[in-house]
Design goal:
Chain lengths: 428, 428
């Protein structure tokens, strides 16, 4: 299968200027970028871009896809009540197969918004892994030591799943300091060390999380993990709203990345992460939507404009972070965090995870600065096409997957209603 | 022309529950809502809604449509530098016809996002009025005493334009305390009193605006206008980030509405308006996008989620404002502020300004709560159809207006490039 994107504004995201020209995809990789594409033909499909932007797909560096069943549920709770009184008791009612079915709605949502990869933390990784593979979505599923897995399982899964050309990969982490026992942490450390993997974890999301940890352990969560050697292979930390000065030092020394989830942090009234500060410190920063229960949408456009706007309001400086730096967080940096550097930029040889953004939408006009238009004015309606691994999964509002969309929705609604019913029976 | 919306989830926005049924539009008004629509046929067009939401269109209570030429320009400036060093000098280069042409891009953007009315403050109202009329967009254009108009002109325009069935209406106001002379204010007061109109004005948008006014006049801007009797017919105030306790009392006593523009306030690092506080005080609150120069998009979905999220983070209470109350701000309250109560809700006899929201988009699934889905997960891609005054102007991503979209864009780009060139020639 050979596809030609013709007459595109090519935003490679490698810090070079936008290039007007063609891009050829051969099977699942980029074969050519330039102005002389005809010699690479014939093509199975020619996409006339009419000057539209093509760029690497967004990388959603933190989500819990299967939590679609909790979307628009308990929207007015704070993090603690929401997590302990709603999420955990409802999650306890999930049955085998549910996570697989519920994840699919979240994958469709991400595909329609130009997200081509995500880092998905949830139970029973083989279920959401299967959902991604069936849909043709490139993802990373994160396992941790809990009822389902032991250390040896994690290492085995890691080695089995992470083959060279795997569409879905596997990573290792924990939920958080306040939900993980010392035994579980030490067991995970063993798996991290054996696989040379960074620890992936929710960290310093709320003020009370940090305060409780200091009260209990005399250390911040970051310091506590450091004392256990859990950062020895680096780290990927979700949220990072309340890092101390010493935490920031540890982040720099131990090569720990920040994944900011501004929409979720606002919704749960957790706080505003000091992203400008982290950027100035040279930390690697990606962007996550968090799950559909706490955001409630998986929309990188909303998150990008929040990263920009919250940095402005927090610092009082309307020049806090440039639009291009935010677009890098949402693409290249995310790819680095997901360990997917084979699809971070548009470059010959890289995987063809490409989106086309429609500059003929009125929010993209006139064009003073295409990057600023995307970051400050973009929304899901400008996503014209989403290609993952060389296959077009979404174009002009339609999905091209091997499954009926309505039946995906019906199944998800059925599970949602069943869990709702059981939850109310248990609690009333 | 008779149109039937069949099998819709009808969200009337009159505080009644969502009703499943049909809605009939006859010419430009709603003729029937219920489950027995067939007797109102035959219909020129039957829209099968498949359970999709139909609801009143969004009312954008503050914008400067023609500022599309400044979109993605000087995105890193603060309000003062942006206004005085970029906007004002570039606006001085506008020629007759420019405002008409530039406004059209903003109207397309709003139509594609389900906005069916806006309150548009800009120079030379007859230009943007013409743009709205040609496109079939219901709007209110705001004139003020400046080089173009004298008091008598304002009163004359008010009486001539505001006929009973006018698609575009006229209102009276000022830019702000810091850009209007006392003579101009008093002349406007005369026009306000003669037409019994509320004063419409940017108010307390930045801390320095308030501080400067107190320094200069010993009063807040709100108190100053009060001392001049400018609130005698009520008021509509844009931004209201920094109202004092006494200002709030004046707002209550003088029947002054708040139009919050959270996206713009963040972008210009102006601050976060205490909307929860205003709501508790019983003030009427609408939502505005502000212009394309300071937001940069005219997207009510982004604004609604900001109103929700900023109230949560500001109060520390994740239950600060309910989703339905935010949807009311974006529709019913906006209509009241625009003095367009003949299209505020879906009700027989009201103007048919209706949007259809596509619940088969993945961000709308599953459906635990349709209103929460719209407010927290909605984005422009869920807008399936926009009808204004009984006419479908947008459906399935396509515009149905009497004009070629590309030529609208070309004209706007031409003006933008010309002004850019002249600006640089003058400043270098």
């Amino acid at each position: 299968m050979k596809t030609l994107f013709r007459n595109a504004s090519i935003l490679k995201m490698d810090d070079s200027p936008i290039l007007f020209g063609d891009l050829v995809v051969n099977e699942n990789r980029i074969a050519y970028i330039g102005s002389d594409s005809e010699k690479y033909g014939p093509f199975d499909r020619v996409i006339e871009c009419n000057g539209n932007i093509i760029m690497p797909g967004f990388k959603n560096a933190h989500t819990h896809n299967a939590m679609t069943f909790l979307r628009s549920k308990a929207d007015e709770d704070n993090l603690h009540d929401w997590l302990f009184n709603q999420c955990f008791p409802r999650e306890a009612l999930l049955k085998p197969g549910d996570i697989y079915a519920l994840s699919k709605v979240a994958l469709l949502e991400q595909i329609s918004g130009g997200i081509t990869s995500c880092l998905d933390m949830y139970f029973y990784v083989l279920e959401h892994k299967k959902a991604m593979e069936e849909m043709g979505f490139r993802g990373v599923v994160q396992g941790c030591v809990n009822e389902a897995y032991k250390t040896n399982d994690l290492v085995k899964l890691y080695n089995e799943i992470n083959t060279d050309d795997a569409l879905v990969r596997f990573s290792i982490g924990h939920h958080s300091e306040y939900t993980t026992s010392l035994d579980e942490m030490l067991a995970t450390k063993k798996a991290l060390d054996e696989t040379k993997s960074p620890l992936q974890i929710h960290l310093s999301e709320t003020k009370s999380e940090v305060e409780e940890c200091i009260k209990k352990r005399g250390m911040t969560p970051c310091e506590y993990f450091d004392s256990l050697g859990l950062w020895d292979n680096g780290g990927v930390c979700f949220h990072c709203v309340y890092l101390s000065e010493h935490d920031i030092e540890i982040f720099k020394k131990k090569n720990i990345a920040v994944v900011t989830c501004p929409g979720s942090n606002l919704k749960l009234a957790s706080g505003i992460a000091p992203i400008k500060r982290y950027l100035d410190e040279g930390l690697l920063i990606g962007i996550g939507t968090d799950g559909p229960a706490s955001n409630n949408c998986l929309d990188m456009f909303k998150e990008m404009s929040l990263v920009s706007n919250l940095a402005r309001i927090q610092t009082g400086d309307s020049n806090a972070i440039k639009a291009y730096d935010i677009l890098k967080m949402a693409t290249v940096n995310g790819a680095k965090i997901l360990n997917l550097e084979d699809c971070d930029t548009l470059e010959v040889g890289k995987y063809a995870d490409i989106i086309e953004l429609d500059l003929s939408k009125p929010s993209m006009q006139p064009i003073n600065n295409a990057v600023n238009n995307i970051v400050y004015s973009g929304s899901k309606d400008i996503v014209k096409l989403t290609m993952i691994n060389g296959k077009i999964l979404y174009e002009d509002g339609k999905f091209f997957i091997n499954e009926d969309i309505d039946s995906i929705y019906e199944k998800a609604q059925e599970i949602t209603d069943r869990i709702d019913k059981e939850f109310f029976e248990k609690n009333n």
